[in-house]
Amino acid sequence: MSNQHAFTAALLDPRKACPPGLVSANGAAPESRFAVYRNNVLGSLINALADNYPVVVHLVGEEFFRAMAGVYVQSTAPRSPVMSDYGDDFAEFIKHFEPAASVPYLTDVARLERLHLQAWHAADAEPMAQEQIVKALSSPTLAGHLKIGLHPSLRLLQSPFAVVTIWAAHQHQTPVPFEAFPAQNALVLRNGLDVKVFAISHAAHGFITALQQGVSLIAAIEASNDLDLEHTLAGLIRHQAITHLLAEQVSP
């Protein structure tokens, strides 16, 4: 192990001894100075997770969250100096964190919070004028062969729990009772400086996923059973999720 890796490992794990070779500028014992520095680093990383996952904090309480986050940070060093990037796999950690098993929807709430953060930091894109979209979709010869470009911030999530309802309730810190919630699909989208979270149908989730993958409009429709096409397209247009339309090349 390199000196740098050894230093990082000791910095994140309070059980490890102070790395050899450290010298304190003021003559103080390097072990005590390193311990203070380590506590500050660990505390900062836990605070960063709390900032990135506020609804998870509300669901389990600050004491439990900080204990859980403490276990996470001891094995996960930051890969970027941008603290909003920290904890991108925190939901997967929660999934396997046994003390959190009593809150079965916690993993998916964390996933939704990560998508919300990603949407906030996603690239900007100018939405296409609604009149242009409606005109193109109204053309029977053109509409079926269009590929629909969606805003870079658009994110999707499937869950067996009502993650949108849980997330929305905790925007005002309203307590949500522990019970079996019906499944929900989430759509996350930034409109200007406002990131919104919507509950969408299973059919709409499949349809929009296909569009994101570059499938033509007609193929996406054919692959989506029980789709309310008019309602779904109207929602994408109304919330300025469509950035461009591309005519698919059709073989003669």
TrEMBL record:
The keyword DNA-binding applies. Gene3D superfamilies: DUF2063. The keyword DNA-binding applies. InterPro entries: DUF2063, DUF2063_N_sf. One of its GO terms (molecular function) is DNA binding. Residues 4-94 form the Putative DNA-binding domain. It comes from the Bacteria. Keywords: DNA-binding. This is DNA-binding domain-containing protein. It comes from Pseudomonas zanjanensis.
